[in-house]
Amino acid sequence: MIRYFWLIVFLAGCSSVAILSDDLDKRFGKTLISDRRTPSSSNSAQHYNQVVRPVLENRCIVCHGCYDAPCQLKLTSPEGIMRGANPELVYNGTRILAAEPNRLGIDAQSTREWRERGFHPILNERSQTAAINMQNSVLFQMLALKQQHPQFAEDGSALVSDELSLGLDREQQCTSRENFTQFAAQNPRWGMPYALPALNQQEHTILSDWIKNGAAMSLPPQLPPEIEQQRDRWEAFLNGNSIKQQLTSRYIYEHWYLANLYFSDLPLFTNQEPEQRPDYFFKLVRSATPPGLPIQIIPTRRPYDDPQVKRVYYRLQLNHASIVAKTHMPYRLNQQRLDWIEQLFITPDYQVSELPGYQTETASNPFVTYRELPVTARYRFMLEEAEYTIMGFIKGPVCRGQVALNVIDDHFWVFFSDPKNEGDKHFEEFLDQQSDNLRLPGESESNSGIVTNWLKYSYLQNQYLQAKNKLLQKYSGPDDKFDTHLIWDGDGQNPNAALTVFRHFDSSTVVKGLVGQNPKTAWVITYPLLERIHYLLVAEFDVYGNIGHQLLTRLYMDFLRMEGEFNFLAFLPQKDRLELANYWYRDTSDELKEYLVNQDKYIIRDPDIQYKTDHPKAELFNLLKHKLTPVLSQKFSLQQHSQPQLLATLAPLNQVRGIAANLMPELSTLMVENYLGQPQLFTLIRNSGHTNITGLLYEEDNRLIEEDYLTLVPGVLGSYPGALYRVSAFRLADFVDALHSMEDEDDYQRLMDRYGVRRTDNSFWKHADQLHSRFYAEDPLNAGILDFNRLENR
User: Fold this and answer.
1) Does the pTM of the predicted model rise above 0.85?
2) Are residues 592 and 524 in the same domain?
3) Which first-to-last residue range defines the signal peptide (predicted)?
4) 380: which residues sit within 8 A by CB, 6+ positions away?
């Protein structure tokens, strides 16, 4: 303790004079970039993995884990730590021209390459002595600054001082060693962890000693033989030489490249998940080298861009980074999966005449590129893992997606068209004929105009819907029933048949099951809609794209959302369809209202469902719940996962509406302490009401606070909590009553005073550790490090 106190004092003294780059050369020696990773079996690597890495995960990665980590400093892997920081904003919705991407592990393969791209080190890269390793490390300097100024405000307030700017759009201060002196003088309370309690002495010592001794890290571990064998088996399959196999593998890659793939013999398409966290996750990547040789990443902006190599090889690359909840998308591989893919794509008797090229105008259109793969196979491939498929645009290429996500409601249910309806030859021919009308904005790449493209895609969408209407009229006979039998039932076993989506302003969550109260809206998704959603919001979406690309993506998603909604409305009588559509789209333009009327014209007949009440939407939900009962996931059911006495006390939270709901954060966690056993975790979600969600970048103008409501679910849902609550079971009724009766911000502050664990709370890290511990224990497959960047200061 004493030695570090004097070291901090010494460093503070050294920082009283500005340090220029030339001074650094004189004081610390010339720059020498080296690879700090050592074999995973070495003592230094084991120390990093077992001692240092847990501190980084629990105290640092909670803010430095995603694309929007401050200063692009991703601490989730040795490669990210060695890469360092860069002041350039990843999320910049105003850029006129697309930016060069800086994706870790893709766009550069060495620390030196990252330096050439403008990243500066956070560790000492000069003479390697203990003193210089600490004096010339921005990471240590930031930790030491926090130790010097651990308080949040001079007056001891429970809130963080205005000196510390909070919020995702705060101005970044990406200090380097050269300008750290001035930074520290101007911002003495900006040490790390930023706007959170300081590390305790043991944690600070662990990181300080690690930095002092050269900050050695670990190379990826050697895989056990049984994992190697499974990886080799999959790489052999994915790199088969037949044209049919090559086209199939290309399709698989463009849908799996974001997945965290893992090996498990548990059966597919059930609610059964591993009881323990898998030891190894893999990423499917495109490589210029075949299996057996080191992977050589093909660094294209999009997964379908021209690889510029003679032959693409699909490889499974070990993902040894820390698992962050926001980007964690687990996907199971085993022999059953291999057999399933072969049955879908390889075994059927059809021919692939030639491999398609990579020209953008065709590669961005899956209906052209994959026209020779059976439609049924493509739909089944996406449908039977629908949670993962939809998770692609929920968790995929974005960590902050307000432009893309304010195009969906805060809470809605998703159902799917039965694949039996979309596999006949007439439908395959129809999709082939409509491939031009199904073009997507990705053909404009990352630099797009807006107005002319909007008009073009609006016209194409209308042409597609008219053609679809004619197809249904031509092939729908009087004996064809139009009722809920058209909805996929998960083949009686697959829980992916029904999903729930919650949006939290600029992030979102998708889970299996029909979770929460009956929502305002619902979608029914068909194969053409599902494929376009994936390519629009996942495969072709570029966070580094210009403003035109990002806004056009959002505008096109308007079409897809309305298509999914009207597929659901088609199961209601016409009078109710139009009334609901007008309710969902209150206060919109005359042009949009005309579009809604035109959408209704594409519904060729009323459904063959005998409704008995004045609330057909609620009846339809009940019909679908009954149909899907055998497969519905109950993972987030309060009734299934709450003790009876807790359920009775907590249930009223699902009746909170209006101003009391509006005062709550978008997402918060509730830990109920039970002194007879483990605490139980819950998530409170605020669903925001809107007149409509067609407004581009002025969402607040469409808000209806009186329609806000809360949904309480067991466990952890979402990745970005805005508040943390901790309540003992015997005070739970008081908490519920206090929340229910809130009328203003003062009431909310009193709620936080009594039950909240604020940023400034001395027990913050203890609570955060327990929160993560319960998350991993209760949901080992899906758990990951939560992100605290959105914690409120109220």
Assistant:
1) yes
2) yes
3) 1-20
4) 344, 419
